[in-house]
Amino acid sequence: MKILLDSEQTAFIESQLQSGQFSSAEDVVAKALNLMAQQQAEYPDQEWLTATAEKIQVGLADIQRGDIVDGETFMAELQHKLDQKRSQSA
C-alpha cells in the first residue's frame, strides 16, 4: 500500500525520526495507528468525542476573548434558573 502525505505530515514524521524516538517512518505510522486504535477502543462513540472536543474549543475561545464567569456567579445563575423552574412547576 502506498500512502501520499502532505508536507506537514512529512515534516512531522521527519521530526519524530530526528528526535531518535523512531528508527523508521513505518514505525512512526505504526505508532500513530496504534494510538488511533486505542482511542477508538476507549471512546467508541466518536460522535460524542468530536462534539465534546468542539465544545472545548468553544470554551477556550470564550476564555481567550475574556468571556468568562467565575464559579460563584455561575452557581448563583444556575440556582436562580432552578428556582424559576420550580416556581413554574408549582
Would you give an account of this structure?
The protein has 90 residues and is mainly alpha-helical. It has helices at residues 7-18, 25-42, 46-65, 71-89. The longest helix is centred in the middle third of the chain and has 20 residues, at 46-65.
Q: Strand percentage, roughly?
A: under 5%
Radius of gyration: 23 Å
- Summing up helix and strand content along with how strands pair, one would put the structural category as mainly alpha
In DSSP terms, counting alpha (H) and pi (I) runs of 4 or more, how many helices?
4
Q: Please tell me what the overall shape is.
A: elongated
Q: How many β strands by DSSP?
A: 0
Query: N-to-C terminal Cα separation, in Å?
Result: 66 Å
State the major sheet. none
The level of helicity is: over 70%
| Order of helix and strand elements from N to C terminus | HHHH
Mean pLDDT: 93
Low-pLDDT runs: none
Task: Name some characteristics of this structure.
4 helices, ParD_sf, ParD, elongated, 90 residues, Type II toxin-antitoxin system ParD family antitoxin, 77% helix, mainly alpha
Q: How is the topology of this model organized?
A:
Elements: H1 7-18, H2 25-42, H3 46-65, H4 71-89
